[in-house]
Design a protein that fits this description.
alpha+beta
Amino acid sequence: MYTVVGCPDCSALKIVEGRPETTRCPRCRRTSTFSKLRALYRSDDLDAAREIRARLLAERSGHADSYAAVGTFAATDADAEGAVVTDEEYLASGGVDPDAAREAGERAAGGTSSRSRKEVVTDALSELDRPTEAEVVEYAAERDVPADYVRRALSKLHRRGEVSETGGRYRLL
């Protein structure tokens, strides 16, 4: 079930799937009890809900005529899929041999992948069994992440509730 609802604060329209206890507005970030929101439209079909939301937005902004000239979401999606240029066509049109480009990509994929500093810290927390700060620092140092960054990241993750720390040992939540 998809429901089109409006935010009571900023009037943003959004589509909510199912019947959650609460929902958060993507524009103003207000959390509202779903059952208290005015349902503008309900449907089991996502495309129908998308159509109604788009129509309401067009009417609100004074573009109802323009909206009427545009096809449905389903038709637009089908048109977009048919109009896509494949990677091979794109590369060939630029004078690049698609097979050579694919081979170069496969060679590059064989190397180590690049991870952000935060990803390295969270990788350490998920791969190591209840690590201490020192173990996380050591894991990250092997991947060229500075120890001071690791300590700051652990502190931030703990404050945000993304990790727990008990007896000097960390666990990713």
